[in-house]
């Protein structure tokens, strides 16, 4: 699989304001039911994303291992899932919504992450602080659905392909941010900071 080609399969949009919205949209060559189960069944979710625990039903709560947790706000199989997405000790508003629909013999996958972010954080990192992580997850989902092996996110940034993917993702989110109206110098600084965070230069 060409990881950069996979990166280019995703359309990204950014909406600014008091709440920021990051949209990812792409097509998978798998039917809607298969993608839905991959995103909502604990055993399958752990194969490409993270182990999850909790009361996995509408109104229940979930916790991703070492990551976000929250409440299951909407669940309409096999097309719509919305959860609160809370991380850290004092999280603000943050929700993730996944929409699936049949298209071109496969599945159109849309992910919206809407969150309140401190302005200083947004100015420093921009949408890539969230978006690069989602790009890595969508890459892993694509590999899983096509029968490939899960990427190792602990070491992926150390590979040539991984660095290319992360750099390309950061730049793509920068382009979406600039299209939303943020200043070019702020965008460039945010892209550089995000790429440095996800793919730090190897120590000599």
Automatic annotation (TrEMBL):
CDD domains in the record: SRPBCC_CalC_Aha1-like_6 (cd08899)
Domain Activator of Hsp90 ATPase homologue 1/2-like C-terminal: 29-144
InterPro entries attached to this UniProt entry: ASHA1/2-like_C, START-like_dom_sf
Protein family: Belongs to the AHA1 family.
Protein name: SRPBCC family protein
Provenance organism: Nonomuraea purpurea
């Amino acid at each position: 699989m060409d990881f950069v080609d996979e990166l280019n399969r995703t359309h990204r949009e950014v909406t600014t304001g008091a709440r920021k919205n990051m949209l990812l949209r792409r097509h998978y060559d798998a039917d809607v039911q298969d993608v839905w189960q991959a995103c909502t069944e604990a055993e399958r979710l752990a194969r490409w994303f993270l182990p999850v625990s909790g009361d996995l039903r509408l109104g229940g709560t979930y916790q991703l291992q070492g990551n976000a947790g929250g409440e299951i706000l909407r669940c309409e199989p096999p097309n719509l899932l919305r959860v609160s997405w809370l991380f850290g000790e004092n999280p603000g508003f943050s929700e993730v919504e996944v929409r699936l629909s049949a298209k071109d013999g496969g599945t159109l996958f849309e992910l919206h992450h809407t969150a309140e972010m401190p302005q200083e954080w947004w100015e420093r990192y921009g949408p890539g602080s969230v978006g690069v992580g989602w790009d890595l997850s969508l890459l892993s989902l694509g590999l899983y659905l096509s029968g490939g092996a899960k990427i190792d996110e602990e070491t992926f940034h150390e590979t040539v392909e991984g660095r290319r993917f992360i750099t390309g993702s950061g730049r793509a989110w920068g382009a979406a941010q600039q299209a939303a109206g943020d200043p070019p110098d702020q965008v460039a600084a945010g892209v550089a900071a995000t790429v440095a965070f996800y793919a730090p230069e190897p120590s000599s």
